[in-house]
Amino acid sequence: MTSRQRPSAEEEPLLGQGEAGTLSPPTEGLWPLIVVLVTSALWSLADFAPKAAAIDALRKFSCAEFYSVHPHPSPADLQAWMTQSSGAAQTARYVLITDTMNSLLTLLAILYFGPKLSKWGRKPVLLISLCAILVMQMGFLVLPIAYPYGPDVDQVGIHPVLTMYLIIGGYVISGLLGAVMLPLVTFRTLVADRSTAAKQTRNLTWLTLTYLGGVMFGPLLAGLLAELFPITSNGIDAALESEWWYWMKSEAPEQPPVPTPQPVPPLPPGRADERNVTPFVVSLSFAILALLFAAFFVAESNPTQASAPSEAEEQDVGASQSTAPRRTSLASKLGPLRLLVPPKVDGKRDWRYSRLALVQSAGTSGGTGLTVLIVGTGHIWAWDPSSVGFMLSWIGGSRAVVLFAVVPLLVKLTEKIVPKPMQLVGLSDAELERLAKGARAEDIGDADDEEDVADRRAATSSTDRLEDRDSDARLKPLVVLWRCAVDLSLARISFFTEMLGYMIISTAALLRNSPLMLFGTVFLSLGGGYAPAMQSACIALASDVFSGVAVEDEAGAPNAHKPLVPKKLGSADAALSAFSIIDTLVQTCVPVATTSLYAATNETFPPAPFILITAFYAIAVTALSGLSPHRSHHH
């Protein structure tokens, strides 16, 4: 078997055909997809239900730790520390530590578990990643809180300093299990496995809706249940004070009694000496349900591996390896990130996927502007927390409506506007739909049985291009790349709409005009369609760009016995893993820059961070403007 010769122009796209091995067909029917979406919804509810409670608990734990080493200050000092910037700064430091460590370890987790999506299968990786929420929330559920929110330090089972170490340890373990990003990668891969080219963007949009459902309803449901069925920490802390936890208590030497103990200052107004852990119970309940759904209902969709080489081929490979040791290139050590290195095709670099990755990084950078908007509403526009919460609910709810109702209409419109390749111009909408429903980015070119061929010929007897299987095999890749062009157009429209929104918000920040800011958030909602469009385009482009990449030996020549590696390079799981690594890096670094810029300019020039966010979206729009899914446009 020799390395495949590359065809010219867009008449023969690079979507793997023939020698690449075969992949299993997508899981048929709507039920397997519904199971994945339900599992994603449960996971999203588990992730977002305790967000507000976790921040409040982290503040209480940090205060308890502070007072464990500064016991019983004066009431004036207590009130000053609790209400001024010192307490907030202490909490912010812990939030920064936990989030940064969690994000960096998530990068390592995706680098490790990303390739395992193909090696182990989707389901084992999903089960592992879903455990991250359990680990993160368990500490908040069972750990006691000491003074000033509860009993004195010597009356709790676990010292507050150790409590903070345990909380940080929970975030560390959660990051090693993939935290939020690894479940997202796995869910997207499962949906892509169950989607044809005709339904891929729609199905990924449904997946995004399940995520937004958790954002909208998770905190609301947790807050409602906390009011109706409060579970306070008194009983839990009492259990922790039992003898079973005695080994956790520090053994301090016995001190002589203090004749006149210092009076304990009163708690700050409105603060209870207990905490309601119902949100964490709700989160753990949803997480357990998600695990059960994943374990018993989610079917494995990992495509089958390419056929094993013959005995003669194995002997030839063994002989060649004994005489010429294989070189391990830098790209092969990068895991999913090797997709960012453009491959050489006919002596030229194919930059399409790398350029799309630049667009993704710029778009994700712009998406972090919501954090700055949340922070800025309190200072620039003087909104109270309830008003900020209402605004977030408005943005989340309106984005869900846009994804459900507006995006499908935009897809239909862009299908009419985006020009088709010449070979598809004469086909009817019904023929295009039939080809799209049978086409996937990774399995185009699979052999069809005689019955399918006969059915296809009977259905398309009036069209010369569709007379036999070879005609379909040539047209299906073109349909996939045309729909990829539709996705890129949809993403460009969405990024442009977001850019307009932040331009309006920048003006509103300069004028300190709240109604104008709310008008700008309307455009943020209308721009919510880029995520599923970018994910769908990512899968199609990666499969096409890397479908003909040959494994090189030490001399740099294609290995005759392993000519193609589309399963490892251009597969959906590898492509989505690379994008998730980009998202994690951006969401770790960019908020530090935007928040620092806000802190430095909020008094002198409040629009500065919003102008930066606008620039990120402008970069995304510009980079997308000249990006075509067809290889001939870039060579």
Per-chain topology:
Blueprint lengths: L30 H18 L2 H19 L5 H9 L1 H35 L2 H21 L17 H17 L4 H13 L6 H29 L4 H8 L37 H19 L14 H13 L20 E2 L2 E2 L2 H16 L1 H11 L5 H33 L11 H9 L12 H10 L9 H43 L2 H13 L3 H17 L19 H4 L2 H30 L6 H18 L10
Helix pairs in contact: 1-7, 1-8, 1-10, 2-4, 2-6, 3-4, 4-5, 4-6, 4-7, 4-21, 5-6, 5-7, 5-10, 7-8, 7-21, 8-10, 8-14, 8-19, 12-19, 12-21, 12-22, 13-21, 14-17, 14-18, 17-18, 17-19, 17-22, 19-21, 21-22
Main location: membrane
Organism: Ceraceosorus guamensis
GO molecular function, one term: transmembrane transporter activity
Taken from the alpha-carbon principal axes, the silhouette is globular
- According to CATH, what is the class of the domain at 34-248 and 272-299? Mainly Alpha
What is the helix fraction of residues, given as a range?
55-70%
Summed up, the helix count is 22
**Major β-sheet annotation:** 2 strands, antiparallel
Distance between the termini: 27 Å
Keywords: Membrane, Transmembrane, Transmembrane helix
GO molecular function, one term: transmembrane transporter activity
Main location: membrane
Region (Disordered): 1-23, 307-327, 441-466
